[in-house]
Amino acid sequence: MAVGQNPFPSMRVINGIRLGTGNAGIKQTQRDDILIIEMVEGGSCAAVFTQNAFCAAPVHIAKSHLPNMPRWLLVNSGNANAGTGKQGLQDAFACCTSLANEVEGLAQQVLPFSTGVIGEPLPVSKVVAVLPTVLQSLDEAHWDRAAHAIMTTDTFPKGASLVLDIAGNAVTITGISKGAGMIQPNMATMLGFIATDARIDQELLQQCLSEVVEQSFNRITVDGDTSTNDACVILASGCSKAPHIMAGTHHYEQFKAGLLSISQRLAELIVRDGEGATKLMHIQVNSAQSEAEAVQVAKTIAHSPLVKTAFFASDPNWGRILAAVGRAGIENINLDNVEIYLGTVCIVENGGRAVSYTEQDGQRVMNQDEITVTVCLGRGKASAEVLTCDFSYDYVRINAEYRS
Question: Of the listed 189, 226, 228, 300, which one is catalytic?
Answer without folding.
Answer: 189
